[in-house]
Amino acid sequence: MKPLEGKRLLITGGTGSLGQVLVRRLMAGEMGDVAKIMVFSRDEAKQHAMRMEYQHRLAVTDEVIYRNFQQKLEFRIGDVRDPDSVASALRSADVVFNAAALKQVPTCEYFPHQAVLTNIIGPENIMRAIESHDLPVETVVGISTDKACKPVNVMGMTKAIQERVFIQGNMRCRNTRIVCVRYGNVLASRGSVIPLFHEQIRGGGPVTITTPEMTRFLLSLDDAVDTIFAAVAEGRPGETYVPRAPSALVMNIATALINGRDIETKVTGIRPGEKVNEILVSEEEAPRTTERDRWYVIAPLLPELRAEAVVASCIDREYSSGDNLVSLADTVRLLKKHRLMLEDVEGERAETLR
């Protein structure tokens, strides 16, 4: 039987870029025929747009399938910052995916307390609700970021503490398995660099680069969901799943997207809180890291949570986006594979408008 067969799922921040892909693939039955998917977020406009998208998608299908879809997909207004709305939503959930986050690096630098409320207090509210009300939640997946590894910015610092809140939560919520996933910049997610480059190219430039040396891991939204599914299927309490992903110079990403057009690139300087290279596994975590299929798996820091000793780690140093960079040609191939070249994006937009 598939891992989520018959389960009731709650996705906090489910209207975001990742949440929407996660919902689509869960509804497709990849992890089993789920009983319910609850999208929990505070933005009613995004919820309405997402609801209408599914209704439009199913308008030409059989009425029975349409009603079945509506029964499965439910939208709940709420905020992870509000413990009461969290506890209410969790009462109906077997599995929780915490995708709610403040994730824009400069925003978190200028409003650090707001980042604390969403990225730390939100996860604590989930743990406290399960613990205090003895809720029968089976699994919680905390969704983190490479910026949580050796953090230098508020976003990364709050996400690093989020990881620790969830991992230690295994000791508080004994009947709930809590795992984390950590991955790099997701290609084409809302607010990421590729949509920005597309807009700058459409406007005739310039395309802005913070520094020519900057590197980032290249991961699609589907790759991110694959990591989440792997953690659900095989993760042990307190483990953190990290994808093995290619990385590239951001300058090469810009060059690939410009694709020979007469458009200038402009170096603007690093923004507040940015790193030149991102890190997915630190040198401190390397001795606790093993390989499992396509992923690195970091054993929990707390010895009480380790199912077994790490006999032999698979890496002997930090895992950085500055290592093993792909070439410009390979960067182009990756972007084409994921249909992220501007020509592909414009083509999809034209199809959608027909």
Radius of gyration: 20 Å
- CATH class annotation: Alpha Beta
Q: What percent of residues are in strands?
A: 15-25%
| Helix-strand pattern | EHEHHEHEHHEHEHEEHEEHEEEEEHH
User: What's the number of domains?
Assistant: 1
Please tell me what the overall shape is.
globular
Within the CATH hierarchy, at the fold level, what is the topology? Rossmann fold
Distance between the termini: 40 Å
Work out the helicity level: 40-55%
Per-chain topology:
Blueprint: E1 8-12, H1 17-27, E2 36-41, H2 44-58, H3 63-72, E3 73-77, H4 83-90, E4 95-98, H5 105-110, H6 112-133, E5 139-145, H7 154-172, E6 177-183, H8 193-202, E7 207-209, E8 215-217, H9 221-234, E9 240-243, E10 247-249, H10 250-258, E11 265-267, E12 279-281, E13 289-292, E14 295-298, E15 319-320, H11 328-337, H12 342-353
Parallel strand pairs: 1-2, 1-4, 2-3, 4-5, 5-6, 6-9, 7-11
Antiparallel strand pairs: 8-10, 9-14, 12-15, 13-14
Helix pairs in contact: 1-9, 4-6, 6-7, 8-10, 10-11
In short:
With about 350 residues, the protein is an alpha/beta fold. It is built from twelve helices and 15 strands.
What does this structure look like?
It is a single chain. The chain has one domain: NAD(P)-binding Rossmann-like Domain (Rossmann fold, 3-Layer(aba) Sandwich). It has helices at residues 17-27, 44-58, 63-72, 83-90, 105-110, 112-133, 154-172, 193-202, 221-234, 250-258, 328-337, 342-353, and strands at 8-12, 36-41, 73-77, 95-98, 139-145, 177-183, 207-209, 215-217, 240-243, 247-249, 265-267, 279-281, 289-292, 295-298, 319-320. The longest helix has 22 residues, at 112-133. Helix 6 runs parallel beside helix 7 and helix 10 (250-258) packs across helix 11 (328-337). With 354 residues, the protein is α/β, with parallel strands linked by helices.
